[in-house]
Amino acid sequence: MGWTFMALVVSHCIILYSVALVKKKWMCFAAGLSTLASIKLEPYNSWQEALVTGSFDLQDILFYGGCGFSIMRCMSFALENCDRKEGNYTFSDLLKYNFYLPFFFFGPIMTFDRFHAQANNTQLTRKEREMWNITTKALLHLGVILVVDVFFHYLYILTIPSDMKLVNKLSDWCLAGLAYSNLVYDWIKAAVMFGVINTVATLDHLDPPQPPKCITMLYVFAETYVYDYIGENHDKIFKELLATVCTFAVTTLWLGPCEVVYIWSFFNCFGLNFELWVAKFFSIPPFSIMEEAMGEAMSRRIRGVFNAANFWAIVLYNVLSLNSLEFAKLVGRRIIFKGGLKSVQDHTQHLKCE
Fold first, then answer.
1. What's this model's pTM, rounded to 2 decimal places?
2. From 332's CA, which of 204, 263, 302, 323 has a CA 20 to 30 Å away?
3. How many C-beta atoms surround the C-beta of residue 242 within 10 A?
């Protein structure tokens, strides 16, 4: 990446370390978000990107990955320094935290307090069968990488959505499978990246964050510093709204402000809050009394209907970020409107036959 790129990253560290010494959290957030925006907004973006010497395939990915994750780590450092009662952490603490190579380009982001405690632990011991587990995970990830590589020679799940003429000719089932496969691929990519990095970090006696859960499982939004810090237990409507807005404001800056990112952030933010609104609404009488009166099986079926709708909402607005707005619109029309109408017509015809 060149020494000028390294100098750029160090300059980010110097700026945010200087702000951290003031010990004002709002200043740390403001400085961090401004620095994060600078690598995505013109003309600051072009100027910084030009500092990378040479030209190669992964240049953009490594530039944004290195700068983006570096700034997020500096924000974590600054916030932890604000909470420190006596004195400040040293600049060398920040450099060790930021330039630990396995985490540098792609994360996962381990918050500074956890990294500092684990990296300075002098009592290094291995748990029983820990090396066996590390070896097993390494071989498993290698196997997944090989399987995905073979699949890419025969399944064109990433390139087919770009050909709208071909996509329009696909059946509803095929289109739904294609959209779902894109999400599974994205999860596998994240799981492998996290898994390989985690395996290396575990060899260094660290306990890194775990890989994301599979997209086939409905789950509460992944743990993040901003989301959990503001949302706390995620059971208060106003705090949840504030936590999601702040989280996706950071994410929007990280990914780069544009139409697709705005739409993706809005619907993700709305979806998380809608889950809480629905849960709160149905927890009040008479709905809570009705659920208590009905059987457990019927309660599961009703919850299943809402979860299925929520699951396909997750599919749709993540397909938007993975592919294109046109492909997401087509999937939405075909699955929700056309597919939903066809299901109603089939059900009506079935009733007539009976």
1. 0.73
2. 302
3. 13
Alpha-carbon radius of gyration of the chain: 24
Instruction: Using the 3D structure, point to which of 65, 86, 119 is the last residue of a domain.
Output: 119
Looking up tokens 């139409």 gives 259
Question: Is 60 part of a structural domain of the chain?
Answer: yes
Q: Which residues contact 120 (CB under 8 A, 6 or more apart)?
A: none
* 219 within some domain: no
Asked if residue 267 lies in contact with residue 313, where contact means CB atoms within 8 angstroms, the answer is yes
Tokens of 172: 């509803």
Is 129 inside a domain boundary?
A: no
3-state secondary structure of 105: coil
Residue range of the domain that includes 113:
3-119
**Per-10-residue mean pLDDT, the chain, length 354:** 87 93 88 85 80 77 84 89 89 92 82 88 83 90 86 80 86 84 80 84 84 53 64 80 84 79 82 78 77 77 74 74 80 72 46 47
